[in-house]
User: What shape does this take?
Amino acid sequence: MVALRSLRASLLALGCASALISPLALADKTFPGIKQLMDEKTFNAAGLQQLSPQELKALDRWLIRYTANEADILQKTVAEVKEEANTEIHSAIDGSFHGWKGKTKFRLQNGQVWEQRYSNTWHTQLDNPKVTISKNFFGFYDMKVEGTKRTIGVRRVQ
Assistant: This one.
């Protein structure tokens, strides 16, 4: 049973590792662990809540090794991984939105949290505006607020 759970966790981690690790590792220089990388719904849907603390630590260690040694190769060679890495994120800001100022965090309805990369300021008043997040030419993420001409550089923090 433990082997099956570990295999399931490993396969899930393989699918999400490259998309999650690099922006988060840059944010605070420590690995947050699979439990913090995933939203609770995804974590539970994968059955990871059944893992013991020791099994979660083993998964985290594997995920760190995988990211360091293989994620970059798979992003360049495996079609499914390449497609996921290049996919735009379409969601909406959760609740009332007042623009950005300094280090504004953007909580999206899909559970992700992004933070602005630059100290730009823009004021507005919108409710649940739709946003599109995509990689720019240099590999950084930009968030476009739909219905406006505004785009801001962002990095994922959760």
